[in-house]
Amino acid sequence: MGLVPATIRVAIDIKPGEDPATIQPESHGLIPVAILSSEAFNAPAMVDRSTLTFGHTGDEHSLAFCSGAADVNHDGLPDLICHFYTQQTGFDVGDTEGVLKGKTVTNVHLEGQDEIRIVR
Prior knowledge:
Shape: globular
Helix content: under 10%
Radius of gyration: 14 Å
């Protein structure tokens, strides 16, 4: 029986500044997601951007690009901002949270959730 790898729980902010984030599943746009840093976790330095998945289950390969670091929650720490293709996230009516998954540059799993509101 193999060991289950540890998972780092990370704070994320879907569509920073919008609470809860409103998502229109038919949109051909992008959904910005901030991976928030903490004293123990430097998101821009520690996240392997190529491993990020985001959406209904967190397993959706919807990454468009990461645009870099910004302090979205004004705590003095740099947060990583990534953008995901809305139509590839698998969101549907009734979904109440978005899930982001990925790995760190040292191959440790990470996962975060944030509240969303689906609109048509």
